């Protein structure tokens, strides 16, 4: 499915991932779900659900709702996780190791096919997933060989280097054809607008959570900021 590069907002894509996990739970109980039920679990309106899903086509049957398996299949395809997507890890410190040794964290549809670091003590060592940590200086060659030898086009990376190195490391990745980066660092990467960056910051999420924890009654906040 080829989607036009248009009105699909980041928020809609985020919600798609939420729909997917809700639907996977829901299918344990039922084979159909309607927009009202979905909206209730998502804490949103049924109009929003219908609007989100209609962005990608007409899947529901009026008055009947959505076939859960069908919707899972469609969302899986929209998110591109109906096939395996190759990803590399750059920076194999505590965070990089946590990812390479807990592949479940990545979920279905992703496979780590290369791990890179710049530390000589780490380069050449075997990671938990049986990949050898490679020298970051060889990343261009690795990507080229993957393309030539196995027709694998690598364009997605998880960036887990120290913050101070993040911008330069990301620029190096982009030069070598990476166009999608999951940025585990707190560095605000400045890259070509064609490069998609998604920031992942547990600390920021905890701060957000903490705000809601200490303001946990609706009346605690006098004014909406
Ligand atoms: N996303 C989150 O929620 C979260 C949580 C904790 C840490 N972090 C961030 O993740 C990053 C890594 O943290 P960590 O605790 O694993 O640090 P770490 O120091 O243990 O590991 C960083 C690794 O990156 C390597 N490295 C540095 N520059 C590099 C480069 N240019 N190319 C390749 N490798 C390079 C280092 O050799 C090291 O192995 C930090 O930016 C940290 O702030 C994010």
From TrEMBL:
Gene Ontology BP terms: negative regulation of DNA-templated transcription; response to redox state
Keywords assigned: Cytoplasm, DNA-binding, NAD, Repressor, Transcription, Transcription regulation
Domain (CoA-binding): residue spans on this chain: 82-185
Signal sequence extent: none
Family per record: Belongs to the transcriptional regulatory Rex family.
HAMAP family: Rex
Protein's name in the database: Redox-sensing transcriptional repressor Rex
Source organism of the structure: Leptotrichia shahii
